[in-house]
Specification:
By secondary structure, this protein is α/β, with parallel strands linked by helices. The protein folds into 2 domains: about 140 residues, Aspartate/ornithine carbamoyltransferase (Rossmann fold, 3-Layer(aba) Sandwich), CATH 3.40.50; about 170 residues, Rossmann fold (3-Layer(aba) Sandwich). It contains 12 helices and 9 strands. It has a 5-stranded parallel beta sheet. The protein binds phosphoric acid mono(formamide)ester. The site of phosphoric acid mono(formamide)ester has 8 residues, from α2. Phosphoric acid mono(formamide)ester (CP) binds next to α2.
Length: about 325
């Protein structure tokens, strides 16, 4: 078991070894159990984290703020529209200064072509660990919570059939960071992953190459289909979720002709009937109800979305406890 984490950045799970991820999950399960028992977990007493948000958030902000309070520390919520970065202050200056005031910097910046570069730049200069709260490429906090949720529902993840499925939505042009993170991560736990999407919603080529390499190394598999029914058929886990066509079309427009042409990519009763009888429906949330998924599914017996969202708390606490505290 890996035990040395203090100061480690958390920007992509690709930079965390499988052994490190296993420790992170063990700590997450331990913290969840202690939370259920009402036990104190003051592992980060008097520690302060700086949480920079360029975008809106419900789960990520609140799991971090509540989580750090439960660990005995304090989180400063920073709306970046009120910071000098909105006047052009560079990442280097922000990272060095915030790092002198506290013990960790976390940031959400999902701007296409900018977010990951910004976080990487913070990490280069910060004297403290930098944690991603989602960028244009990765959402590691979501990925680790998803794995925890699958593991607690199914003890053995090996050869579990997991389908990451594009879904129609009109709420906003969403980052690709959730499907990218899941595509890279799930094969490392031996899962048989199917990525399904209509033409035009490709993930970057390097993601596909690395996902296939991860599958080869860890005994999982990774395949792509443009047929939604293939992805649902016999699946143990389905994750129908929208993402934007950033790779092929960098426009910020939410609705375009290609989106409109794929309105039928919705998680319905008919689609779920093709999956395994014990199939689990997952979604990082917020869901675009009525577009991505029918209410009968997200509110139905196969849905585990609230357990998935709860696990954002336990995994966020584990990431902070190990990277800000620990040894
Ligand atoms: N899944 C997720 O990251 O939710 P928020 O955007 O509400 O943080």
């Amino acid at each position: 078991m890996k035990t040395i984490f203090r100061g480690k950045d958390f920007i992509t799970l690709q930079d965390w070894s499988k052994e490190e991820l296993d420790t992170l999950l063990e700590v997450s399960f331990d913290l969840k159990k202690k939370f259920a028992m009402g036990l104190d977990t003051p592992y980060l007493k008097n520690k302060t984290a700086m949480l920079m948000f360029f975008e809106q958030s419900t789960r990520t902000r609140n799991s971090m703020e509540a989580g750090l309070a439960q660990l005995g520390g304090h989180a400063n919520f920073l709306d970046t529209s009120t910071m000098q970065v909105s006047h052009g202050e560079v990442a280097k200056d922000t990272a060095i200064i915030l790092g002198r005031y506290g013990h960790m910097i976390a940031c959400r910046n999902c701007d296409w072509g900018i977010g990951n570069d910004y976080l990487t730049s913070l990490a280069k200069w910060a004297p403290v660990p930098v944690l991603s709260l989602q960028d244009d490429l990765y959402h590691p906090m979501q990925g680790i919570a998803d794995i925890m949720t699958i593991m607690e529902k199914r003890e053995n993840t090996r050869n579990l059939k997991v389908s990451i499925i594009w879904a129609y939505a009109t709420s906003h042009k969403k980052p690709i960071s959730v499907p990218v993170t899941q595509s890279l991560l799930f094969p490392r736990f031996g899962m048989d992953v199917t990525l399904a999407y209509p033409e035009g919603y490709d993930l970057p080529d390097w993601v596909i190459e690395q996902s296939r390499a991860n599958a080869e190394k860890h005994g999982g598999s990774f395949k792509i289909t443009h047929d939604m029914e293939v992805a649902y058929t016999d699946a143990d886990v389905v994750i129908p979720k929208n993402w934007g066509s950033w790779v092929t079309n960098q426009s910020d427009d939410v609705i375009d002709e290609n989106l409109k042409a794929n309105k039928d990519w919705k998680c319905t009763k008919e689609m779920m009937a093709k999956a395994d009888e014990d199939v689990m429906y997952m979604h990082a949330l917020p869901a675009d109800r009525g577009n991505e998924v029918e209410d009968s599914i997200i509110d139905g017996p196969h849905s585990i979305v609230y357990d998935e969202a709860e696990n954002r708390l336990h995994t966020a606490k584990a990431v902070m406890a190990l990277t800000m505290g620990g040894r």
